[in-house]
Amino acid sequence: MSEESDSLRTSPSVASLSENELPPPPEPPGYVCSLTEELVTKAREELQEKPEWRLRDVQALRDMVRKEYPNLSTSLDDAFLLRFLRARKFDYDRALQLLINYHSCRRSWPEVFNNLKPSALKDVLASGFLTVLPHTDPRGCHVVCIRPDRWIPSNYPITENIRAIYLTLEKLIQSEETQVNGIVILADYKGVSLSKASHFGPFIAKKVIGILQDGFPIRIKAVHVVNEPRIFKGIFAIIKPFLKEKIANRFFLHGSDLNSLHANLPRSILPKEYGGTAGELDTATWNAVLLASEDDFVKEFCQPVPACDSILGQTLLPEGLASDAQCDDSLRAAKSQLYSCY
């Protein structure tokens, strides 16, 4: 790490509380690293994570939260804060902003985040809308498989699908391996019609992409889209204005060319539905993993929000999000794109 980066770790903004302030509450249980030596090396090279400085970095972020957002209702455990430091390559200020955005997004979209628990999403899980493949890719990334054609809009609103995706991401990010390696998304758009695509307008797109880019501590390494119909051009027209260039460059459209997909994701980790050799697509196993985590999600997402930090949802939004006026313009343009694709 450069001298400039090193100086960030000891900046005055993370100084200890002054003598006339109340002492901090007792520290949470200590952190024990579960990374292999190989992943420790990868985290050092890609994320600027130095094991010898790790706990000092966590304490610095903890001090910043206590000083700048003393009323924020958030975990301050070492393991929890490490998610945000890793997602922002141990830049204290950016990690703090990500943490604030994370809570702001949760406060500002109650339709998605209220009562967020696996038992509330049994219909979505049973539909096979999403799952996580049992094998990681060669880089160690878990592969999240999303199949929009399994969703029947008359059964439940699109926000239920978003809830299921967020639930899956929350479960995945508990793993330190995922924090370092990131994830890959495999989206199968086979059979997606114009009427179904119209549910995913700019307002929904802005919120979802805002969360994934600026409001959640996960690294999305690639998005592979297969079996996309012509209508996907319209869908992507809705999404693209909200994507940062780095993320936009990680979208790969394969159509029905499975050989193109296999050049990125080996056949050995893919189910036979996608030309793989890993057996039939299994959704039951991941559903069971989520349902077994019911108590954890109830504790985290089904408690009342303290009034003292509810202002977050009103005043802080992920950086780079478009205004409602821009969304109106995007909506008109997207509708034109959608219909022209047909």
TrEMBL record:
Gene symbol?
A: TTPAL
Q: Which Pfam families match?
A: CRAL_TRIO, CRAL_TRIO_N
**One GO CC annotation:** trans-Golgi network membrane
- Cite the record's Polar residues compositional bias ranges: 8-19
- Species this protein is from: Macaca mulatta
Q: What is this protein called in UniProt?
A: Alpha-tocopherol transfer protein-like
Q: Which domain of life does this protein belong to?
A: Eukaryota
Molecular function terms, GO-annotated: phosphatidylinositol bisphosphate binding; phosphatidylinositol-3,5-bisphosphate binding
Residue segments, region Disordered = 1-30
Residue stretches making up the CRAL-TRIO domain? 117-282
InterPro entries given in the database record: CRAL-TRIO_dom, CRAL-TRIO_dom_sf, CRAL/TRIO_N_dom, CRAL/TRIO_N_dom_sf
Q: Which residues cross the membrane?
A: none
| CDD domains, A to Z | SEC14
Known SUPFAM superfamilies for this protein? CRAL/TRIO domain, CRAL/TRIO N-terminal domain
